Amino acid sequence: MPKTLQEIKDKTLKDNPNLRSQDIEYVLAERLSYTPSQYQMHKDDELNKEQEKQANLDMKKLRRGVSPQYILGYSWFYGYKILVKRGVLIPRFETEELVKWALDSVKDGDKILDLGTGSGAITVALAKKAQEKGMADLKFYASDITDSALLESEENFLVHNIDVTTRKANVLVGLEKFDIIVSNPPYIKTSEKDLMDENVLKNEPEEALFGGEDGLDFYRKFAKQVRDHLNSGGEFFLEFGFDEKQDLAKLFAKELPDFEIEFRDDMAQKPRMVHGKWEK
């Protein structure tokens, strides 16, 4: 039986060459609270029996196609540990850029909605970073269409000691008015399903991934509803698919001509985020 991290990794790859090497290293390192450099320094150290047993159980799940974050029970987002489980979308690093952009507009007393909250990662990051900036009297709301997501988000809010009001809602129907709305909605085209990572399809909820034939189902509903859910001077920040900018620009020009719309690229220089501001 393998005794070191390197031996466990080698055996796992031998048993299933299709696994990604970085996923194996990520799970093994996280279990031992190792940074990537610490992992490299300790990869040839012998594990104790308990560590070896855990590693073998984790590798068995990886071979079955379980995502690394679901194996661990958490993901990292904006430096915060976010609890995740099957049925809840794993937070993406790209969404951290959306949070950073939204933070620039947050001011004291704002009422903020994380629309389609999933794990609650966006709210956790916004609330903690706003707290670091000394902002006061912020009111946080988080909504989702599924009970499983709301339960997971509430657990994360409890862990991070954040006061958040949760609501079950389909897009904005039934919700109140806000100063800022932030969302990473479903935007993947159903036609792209065959091109996606098998692990994502096997583990993550379809309702959090797919946005219809053209990926824009959410945005069409949002554009028709948003005026009834923003205060004067209100703003929204949305993530979207990198090839959807042109269609989104046309949609917002038609439905939201009285909004100031700005698009922004992500760090990979791909169009990924849109900001809208409404002046009544």
From TrEMBL:
Q: Which reaction does it catalyse?
A: L-glutaminyl-[peptide chain release factor] + S-adenosyl-L-methionine = N(5)-methyl-L-glutaminyl-[peptide chain release factor] + S-adenosyl-L-homocysteine + H(+)
Q: Which residues form the Methyltransferase small domain?
A: 108-194
Record bears the keyword Hydrolase = no
Keyword field: Methyltransferase, S-adenosyl-L-methionine, Transferase
Q: Which domain of life is it from?
A: Bacteria
Any idea where the Release factor glutamine methyltransferase N-terminal domain is?
A: 21-73
Q: What class of enzyme is it?
A: transferase
Output the NCBIfam families linked to this UniProt entry.
hemK_fam, RF_mod_PrmC
- Return the protein name: peptide chain release factor N(5)-glutamine methyltransferase
